[in-house]
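Subject: sequence -> structure tokens, single chain

Hey, anyone have a minute? Need the predicted structure for the following. Not urgent.
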Amino acid sequence: MVKIAVVTVSDRVSRGEREDASGPLAASLLSAYGEVVRTDVVPDGVDTVTAAISGAADAGVNVVFTTGGTGVTGRDQTPEATEALIEQRMFGIENLLRSNPNVPQAALSRGLAGVGRFGGLPVLIINAPGSVGGVRDAVRVVGPLLEHIVSQMRDGDHPVPQGEDPFEGFDGHLEATSRVQNRGRSQGGAARVVIAGVSDQTLDMGVLVDAVDDPTAGAVVTFCGQVRNHDDGRQVTAIDYEAHPDAGRVVEEIAEQVAQASGACRIAVLHRTGHLEVGGIALGAAVSAPHRAEAFRLLEAVIEQVKMRLPVWKRQHFADGSQEWTGVA
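Reply:
Had a minute. Here:
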């Protein structure tokens, strides 16, 4: 059984000045994935959050879900408290919690996710934003994973459920075909990052494809992001890309993070800087993997994270002679 504690972090809620909306919602939603055995409300601050998480862990829960204190005000210190308690960061979950194209503010959350150990026992800690929307999105991401994560924290294996056949209900020919086409199973290893960074030179997709060549790969997938000739109804003639000095390191970090446990073989990704005409390649990536599913998943993950996190800006040149600076696209 997954045992869950919910901790609301808020100065105003703890003082009774505002009703707690996010904590009860989190408890209600999480009850579909385990037993919520404890709820707490504490003021913002490293000491109060640390004490609440530790107290819940000592009470025997294996998941602590916090809501609030993940922003950038002086009192938002939930991530700082959590970081000191985590031994194994779960970057994939953190990235998913911040990757909501429908809510740009989601990228502002500094919430962490990972496993800490209390008295030798592992506990999963998840930081969600303090808004009800942030809680809904966080539970939507982590809820279906909780049982599996808790099992893994206890050194569980990856068993195939007995009697569960993904091809059940197919007709004879379709079943035989599907079994052949989907017989490969991912081993879940980390992909090797062979190229990752930014470049002021013309990107060559062939170079990226050659870089991910691997004798164990059964699939190679690519993404070629080109400069288009329009944007929001205006005719574009060229784009200048300008990168932060740390942009290359950010691409490397993204590639290494998404490569973990991806089951793929190799990954290569580059973003251009400088002047590009229409049709020029601004972002290129190639991924190789034993099977197509792992290759597609890793390629999508690296592209989405580069789009979300890379400190690169673009100046678009329009046909009417005007120019406009925007974030990376």
